[in-house]
Amino acid sequence: MKSSTTFAVEIQQDAVDAADKPDGGVPRPSRVRHLALLTATFCALVFYAHYGVPGSMASALFKPPVTVSSLPSLASVTIDRNSGRAEQPVMLAEEHAPLTPQATVLEANRSTAMPAPTPTDRCDGRYIYMYDMPPRFNDDLIRDCGKGRLHPWLDMCPYVANDGMGQQLADDGGVFPGRGWYSTDQFMLDLIFHARMKRYECLTKDASLAAAVFVPFYAGLESGRYLYNYSISTRDALQLDAIDWLVRRPEWRAMGGRDHFLVAGRTTWDFRREADVDELWGTKLLTYPAVENMTAFVLETSPLTGSNFAVPYPTYFHPEAAADVLAWQERLQKVGRRWLFSFAGAPRPGSKKTVRAQIIRQCRASSLCNLFHCGGVIGGGAADCNSPAGVMRVFETSDFCLEPRGDTATRRSTFDAILAGCIPVFFHPGSAYTQYTLHFPRDHGRYSVLIPHAGVAAGNVSIEETLRKIPPEEVRRMREEVVRLIPRVVYADPRSRRVGFRDAFDVALEAVIGRVAKRRRGEAAGR
């Protein structure tokens, strides 16, 4: 290609040739002249575009791709200016560097040449619809909390305080340092869970958006009122009323309740009466077909059902934030443990389902066991298993905590032990391994010990000898695993807006959302 200077010389020479013609006439137009004029015009435009207009088409054509690392939503994104596409986007954290001049220009170009990205919905797939049930199914129950109302012989009003956490505990000689410690009754999960749901960040009033539907019926608290010496018609009345109210709702009809869940904060056996006979224990709540369609969280489940899931018993610890958990975990790593093992509990005379009597006998015979005999007399003083400080002192000073079954297969004591950094010792898989599958690791040997029930019952197994055989390094590793479990098995303060860690509530909620999603996929596939 010729330069613009060469084209200008050729045009001037054509004019001289025309002036020298002898006839003085007008020369015929030259094709070279036309070509030169067009070419000069084009080159002038290119020259102007290249040097006179920043950010122009020419600049876009001749500049190489630009890498921008400070965009608010992308990191190390290479923008191909020819295609307008961003390659390999990587999400950044919430903190961003200020835009560079290049990035500012790029953002301006994107605003005109590309559609703005749609903001990510952080609640997508996590929305929960919560019924606004008549107060007779929840709030009215806890208003009437005096002696003989929620419990046959106890005043439960101190325990329903603070959204079910109970009264705040004092330091008590250093047993409960920091904040987050409450005298929590083991059967307050209905109230704690509901209070947490009220502040759940992804509640929706549009049931069609919901990943699951929560039923805030205080089934556990309600059934506890009438477990002793009441007719089945009295025991069943409010539960049947709640079911009738539910099945009439349009939200229920969408999936027949298969996207619904509730919390019944007692063991499953309190809701599985086998017949309509006054002498039989409990209610029939979990056996009704409508309720079987739902997912129910209970403190202990039955191996015969797939619609109920066991969740941890409430403990005394309800941290407001992750920092509270971390401070407690760090404290546990420094606690001196003078006892090899301990047991806090009472015998179950006449029961063939538990080895408590044998455990108490072995513990008394061992200089390495700390026995906290509930209701009995130890060293001249009463051992009160309802004393949070007393129980925690025993567990904090022990390497292993014995957790046999009691009235049922599970115990709240298991979670108090974990909270104290004490390695739980089980005597039957049904006390934990087949129960808390959502919250406990599958590798049970990482955090616990299993001593078969039969050997202890027959007197063929020494608990002390079994535990002494575990190497100190293995004990240390197991304790660290137990301490790591603490966030997953405690319920955070339901009033807190800055929890910052996954607690037992979060684990359960994620499980029910996943279960409902699987059910929907099954229905879509025609199963």
From TrEMBL:
<keyword id="KW-0328">Glycosyltransferase</keyword>
<keyword id="KW-0808">Transferase</keyword>
<dbReference type="GO" id="GO:0000139">
    <property type="term" value="C:Golgi membrane"/>
</dbReference>
<keyword id="KW-0472">Membrane</keyword>
<dbReference type="Pfam" id="PF03016">
    <property type="entry name" value="Exostosin_GT47"/>
</dbReference>
<feature type="transmembrane region" description="Helical">
    <location>
        <begin position="35"/>
        <end position="53"/>
    </location>
</feature>
<keyword id="KW-0812">Transmembrane</keyword>
<dbReference type="InterPro" id="IPR004263">
    <property type="entry name" value="Exostosin"/>
</dbReference>
<dbReference type="GO" id="GO:0016757">
    <property type="term" value="F:glycosyltransferase activity"/>
</dbReference>
<keyword id="KW-0333">Golgi apparatus</keyword>
<feature type="domain" description="Exostosin GT47">
    <location>
        <begin position="123"/>
        <end position="466"/>
    </location>
</feature>
<keyword id="KW-1133">Transmembrane helix</keyword>
<dbReference type="InterPro" id="IPR040911">
    <property type="entry name" value="Exostosin_GT47"/>
</dbReference>
<protein>
    <recommendedName>
        <fullName>Exostosin GT47 domain-containing protein</fullName>
    </recommendedName>
</protein>
<keyword id="KW-0735">Signal-anchor</keyword>
<comment type="similarity">
    <text>Belongs to the glycosyltransferase 47 family.</text>
</comment>
